[in-house]
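On clarity, I found the account of how folds are encoded harder to follow than it need be. An entry of this sort, consisting of the sequence and the corresponding backbone structure tokens, reads as follows:
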Amino acid sequence: MVKVQLAIVSLIIFVAGLVFDLLYLRKASKGYVIKKFIICVYSPLAIWSVAYYVICLLYAGITLSWIWLWPLIAVFCFLRIIMLRAEIEETPLIRIPKGLRIAYRILFITGLSLFLFVEGRIIGAMSARAPENLDYVIVLGAGLIGESPSNPLRVRIEKAAEYMMENPDTILVASGGKGTDERISEAECIRQQLTWVYGIDNERILIEDKSRDTIENLENSLTIIGDANAYTGVITNGFHEYRAMLIARHAGFENAHSVPATTLLPVGIHYLVREFFGVVQCMVKFGNI
């Protein structure tokens, strides 16, 4: 249902953007086809970014990390629309040296290409199929609300329960420490949900309750497993799987596999875009892709 609603909103915004373009460019000089086309790209993106920012506020609130990214994108798009219109009318707002314009275009194209490349890897990992009968699966913590799992953690637990029921010989490592605003550790919450709600045997669950981030999740879990060659699945939300695999290889896992859980909409789009920066950081830090 959320997917349909989001698709309808996006379609309405796209049409609104085109209407805006027709009105905004109706008296513009003839020619300048490329600049006009770019305006037709920027205007729907700007309107969509504003609308999506409001949607994220309604669903997740101002505490959602990096939420400022969407109004920033909207402001950038609106500024570029104004600048391009001025260039079309041959009345530029600022006289920018040709060298700077060329440097900007090179940086923009390079950045956009890198973004599309990384996002392609992220989206590809979201659809990975987990092998059957893995030796271990690790559930990465994702925050609690009191003693209850957050929505991202809830779907990870659901995926873990599904995998554990289909593969009765697999051992699970519940990984995640206790935050300052949490009553219990994320690992303990995972264990409780799997045993109380889904009936998973407690003896099949190992606890790692000291980690504070994904790197520590996987490093500490490998210490508990004690075998870098064990066939191990990493259960996290789909948008996070690619980065989790980069970190797993860095941590020392020789046979790590993605076990992607659901990426929830509508905020999943935000996580998907935000994840780009986390992946780039890992690429720079670990030196691999």
User: Anything to note?
Assistant: The radius of gyration is 23 Å.
